[in-house]
Amino acid sequence: MVYIRKVQRIGSSSLFITIPKAWCEKYGIKEGENVELIESTSGDLIILPKAQGSGESVFVIDLSKVNLIYVDKLISYAYINGYSEIKIVYSRKQDLESIKDMVETKFMGLILTSEKDNEAVFSFALDTNRVNFYELFNRIDKLTSLMLDSVDDEKSVLRLDAEVDRIYFLLVRMLRTGLTNSEVAKRLGLDPVRFLDFRLVLHFIESFGDEITAVAGKITPKDVQPIKSLKEAVIKAFLGYSEIKADKIEKLTDEAYELVRKANKEVSSSLSRMIEMAKDIADLSETLYLK
After folding, report:
1. Between 20 and 30 A from 168 (CA), which of 82, 83, 106, 114?
2. What is the pLDDT of residues 164-213, one digit of tens each?
3. How far apart are the C-alpha atoms of 281 and 237, rounded to whole Å?
4. Closest by Cα among 284, 264, 121 to 194
């Protein structure tokens, strides 16, 4: 729904607009109550209804009704969608033990807080108010660079990729929460379009890590240096670093494709996908091609 309102004047200097009645009724806003106004990074003024509380939300997974191969995906869904608790109903102890191992290695801040004969509860115990989104974003970028530096060591790459996945899920959780929670939105300082951009870039970075894992032990760090340089440059461009120019991205892209032409077929497909994802990130860099 799009509402158009005329800016009006009160007294000699104050300006105001009215809030649509239908919108107020939809969100239960009454006269005298507060709404929140957030200025986005692009200058948009976003009006939010009453500040949302933290609220407890529980996602239940009954293993008697779910194929075990899908439990990982269900927990991922509950985690990134901001559920505070995930309750597992089970009959076989060994099923719970495998879930415990998976949760511990994959989902940051999710801990086992209750365990009964046929029921276990995992709670999200990380205070995201103390988590710096942008520091974690830079961390996941650095981890993929470390993966490229260690690409000839498969064990190191797998260990680093596991950390990439953990940070990825936490950052996506924060982004999705920020779309519905005004306090998180204010802390992140992102407008709705930028929320989407960061979500896409995180997907590309996580997939980038998967492609590195696919070529681990089959190529040397020196061989993938052009891709590493391209990846780091497009991330800087996305974050608004003015020293990154379009011609530099084009030069680094050409050098990366030259690597693909020299690579064997066993790794060339993964290398090409890395380059394409880097180009997709560059396309989300709003100022890169305006200078």
Report:
1. 114
2. 999 999 999 999 888 777 677 777 887 778 888 999 999 999 999 999 99
3. 9
4. 284
In the chain, beta strands by DSSP E: 8-10, 14-16, 36-39, 45-48, 58-62, 85-89, 110-115, 119-124
pTM of the model: 0.77
Pairing type for strands 119-124 and 110-115 reads antiparallel
Length of the chain: 291
What is the 8-class DSSP label of residue 31?
Answer: T
Q: Which residues contact 168 (CB under 8 A, 6 or more apart)?
A: 140, 202, 205, 206
Single out the residue of 169, 132, 168, 162 nearest to residue 147, CA to CA: 162
Produce one character per residue of 27-36: b if its CB has 16 or more CB atoms within 10 Å, e if not.
Answer: eebeeeeeee
- Give residue-wise pLDDT tens across range 235-290: 999 998 888 889 999 999 999 999 999 888 889 999 999 999 999 999 998 777 76
Token pair for 9: 């004047």
Answer for the pair 179, 198: CB distance below 8 angstroms, yes or no: no
